[in-house]
Amino acid sequence: MADNGSYLHLARPLPTVPIPHVHATTAPLNVTIHTQALFSILDHSLRRNLDQERVIGTLLGVRSDDGTEVEIRNCFGVGHNESQEQVEVDMDYHKAMLALHLKANPREVLVGWYATSPELNTFSALIQNFYASNGEGTFPHPAVHLTISTEPGQDISIKTYISSAVGVNPERMADNCLFVPVPHEIRYAEAEKSGLELIAGAKNTESRTAPVMTDIGALEKAVEDVLGMLERVSTYVNSVLKDETPASAAIGKFLLNTLSLAPKVNATEVERMFNSHIQDVLMVSYLANTIRTQIDLSGKLATYNFGPKDPILAAAAAAATTAPVASK
Amino acid sequence: MAEKTYAGPIKSVRVDALVVLKICKHASSAHPQTVTGQLLGMDVDGELQITNSFPFPTVDTPAQDDKHDKENASSGNVAPRSKVNAYYQQEMVRCLRDMNVDASSAGWYQSASLGNFLNASFIENQYHYQSQHNERTVALVHDTARSTAGALSLRAFRLTPAFMAAQKEGKFTIESLQKHNLTYKDMLVELPLTIYNSHLLTSLLHQLDSPTPAPLNALSLSQPMPLAPNFDALDLSIDQYLEKNCDLLLESIETHYSEVNNQQYYQRQLAREQTKIAGWQAKRKSENALRASAKQPLLPEDEWQRLFKLPQEPSRLETLLNSRQIEQYSKQIDGFTASVSAKMFAVNQGLPRTEL
């Protein structure tokens, strides 16, 4: 789900202190959120203390060399206490956990923080300034703040921000900042596709669980999906033909492009390829099964050789092994 | 710690979606190296609920040499038992407990490629977990290579009590295998595994599935949606996969062959020693008979135990593991050929042809 709203890319304020070697840039920032981080945040939100309204945590990920692309890949929760007047974030915990995470994922860096409530308040500014600070924070890169609403019964809305300093003097700047919304995109890695598919398969069941599929099961599902999509497209095309739905040139072109992708092949060529391949496949399958039987047999023979079940063999074996002892 | 009210064996494993993704990410980031990690969760009435996990850092190898792929792979394998990780594990669990995460160990996970995970270190790790940490732990195996070719391959294993007993004794001779009635088929038991989503997650998934209507253009159509159905299962590239599988199978057969040779060598050696002993004893007996007739003191007849040394019986563990591995490969090939032949027939029938 990409965030489809329009964004005004404000020129990001440059760091107030010029730093050597790092070229500060005001290019627009794009944030990519990996599903794993999202799932992790939701899990943390479910495990919050009863009296807590929101939980916060640290976001980890990778940043492109020029700092315009941020990928949020991982995260962990950090304990905090919020009251009317003050906020307390467990900084030691944050540091310890960050060190532990970096040990296992050396390529990931601190990119920002998340909160599980959509609102931004003065405490948000304080925490944001900590995460963006020089030294422990993401400085000179901006820290990304991700909010995710976890109100039951309502849509989960995800928003990402970066901040710029606001304040008339340095003291005021420490606890103020301006949150600038930035676009984000939810993405998954290629390797997670099969996992996500399974997880998504569980969303319509009452128990919210799904068994692991076999390869054949996956094939069946894929074929069913394709059939379903074809069905949908043909219903749509039919309704357009009958003038029930307005036609869309974009969809029409897309369908035409897709149809032209169907390969035209020589009949004899296909037949030849098919036959040679199916023979290979069946041969390998046959051999694999033969090997399995052989191994089974070998295992049985190895332990059966001197087995006590067979009286003749057992007697012979006993005679063979005990012969030197018996003659003592 | 909550008291355990249920003492029966673990019947099934329930894995949270978060853990599935975490394992997938960790495994694919280091592929083809083997990675391991810790599973956290709870045991509820015989169902092991795995709710969180964290990766183990790989143990530093002196030199990252590509030639020593095997060594690199094994460095990941030993991670669950190494001393450095014990500290890491403790710290991580302590930190996670502060965040209200289930902090009891539920086992460990490992990545694999085409089912090649059955080796001595896998067994030792799981033995370590089941004997040292907590009896009620499982090993999850995520097969990276198979998952990209189709359905997610995530399996849960435990060592059987019979195997635990044999491993405790530390020897795998034919005799002990018979005693425990152990064959390669009952070393490991696979548990049924289900994926579980929280309410919040279900809500998010539904939302991702029905995005807000966006302005329709050619660009938005060609971009894949986050939860679009996965058509990897329809992929027709068979040769590569079969070839790899066959290679692995052949390798295993070679190992099996050398193990059998070892065993035969031992048998021959044993037989030779035994005839020697028998010969010696016969000689000693006749000598004693002579001495008895000459009224001389008899020579001891059990000196052969000092003079001859019987060869050590080789461990059968390797053979057991290898047999199980071969069985696994065969089953994998079987399953793959079943689906691939179906696909091939479908393609053969469905292709539009030109007459030429």
Distance between the termini of chain B: 76 Å
CATH topology of the largest domain in chain B: Cytidine Deaminase, domain 2
Q: For the residues shown, what is the average pLDDT of chain B? A: 77
Which CATH first-tier class of the largest domain in chain A would you pick? Answer: Alpha Beta
Choose one word for the global shape of chain A: extended
The count of helical stretches of chain A stands at: 9
* Straight-line N-to-C gap of chain A: 84 Å
Q: Which structural class is indicated by helix and strand composition of chain A? A: alpha/beta
At CATH level 2, the architecture of the largest domain in chain A is: 3-Layer(aba) Sandwich
CATH topology of the largest domain in chain A: Cytidine Deaminase, domain 2
Characterization of this structure:
- The complex is a heterodimer of chains A (328) and B (356).
- By secondary structure, chain A is of the alpha/beta class.
- Chain A has nine helices and twelve strands.
- Chain A has two domains: 30-190, Cytidine Deaminase, domain 2; 214-302, no CATH class.
- Chain A is extended and about 80 Å long.
- The termini of chain A are far apart.
- Chain B folds into two domains: 12-197, 3-Layer(aba) Sandwich (Cytidine Deaminase, domain 2), CATH 3.40.140; 237-339.
- Chain B is 52% helix and 15% strand.
- Chain B is built from twelve helices and nine strands.
- In chain B, strand 4, helix 4 (120-133) and strand 5 form a beta-alpha-beta unit.
- In chain B, helix 10 (239-293) packs antiparallel against helix 12.
- At the A-B interface, helix 1, strand 3, helix 2, helix 5 and strand 11 of A face helix 1, strand 3, helix 3, helix 5 and helix 7 of B.
Question: Gist?
Answer:
Chain A is an alpha/beta fold. Chain A has helices at 35-46, 91-104, 122-131, 170-174, 193-201, 215-241, 249-260, 267-304, 311-326, and strands at 30-34, 56-63, 69-78, 80-82, 87-89, 109-115, 144-148, 158-165, 177-182, 184-187, 209-211, 265-266.
